[in-house]
Amino acid sequence: MPKQTLAVLEQQFTIHSFAASTKPVSEIFEQDIYFLGKTEDELSVVVPSHLALDSLDSESGWRCLEVLGPLDFSLTGILSGIAGVLAAQNISIFAISTFDTDYIMVKQDCLNQAISALEKGDYQISQS
Hints:
The structure is a single chain. The protein is built from two helices and eight strands; from the N terminus they run E-E-E-E-E-H-E-E-H-E. By secondary structure, the chain is α+β, with helices and mostly antiparallel strands. It has one domain (5-127): VC0802-like. Strands 1, 2, 3, 4, 5, 6, 7 and 8 form an eight-stranded mixed beta sheet that branches.
C-alpha cells in the first residue's frame, strides 16, 4: 500500500485534563477543530491554544498532522507506521482517531524533525 499524505495544520493546540464529571464549556464547541475524550477517570480536551480553559492540568505547544482521508476501516497499520517512524527518532506523539482519519500531534519543537523523518519514510507532507 502506498504511504499516506499528511497535512500540517496551522494552529497550535493545547491538551487539557479535567475531572470526569466536568461538563465541557460551550466555547469548546465554537472552535473549528477540537477533540473530546471521556472515560470513567477523566475528560481530555484538545483545542487550539488561543482558547484558555480552566483545567486541572494542560500541556500546550502541540502541532497536528492530519492523515488525509477518508480512510477505510479495512486499512491496517496506518497509525502504527507513522508512530514507528516518529518513535525511531524519539519523537513522542499524541494520537487521535476519528471516523474518517487519524491525527498525530507532536510538540512544536519537534515538528521539523517529525516532517523530515516522515518524508524520509516516504510519506508526503502538505504544509499550508
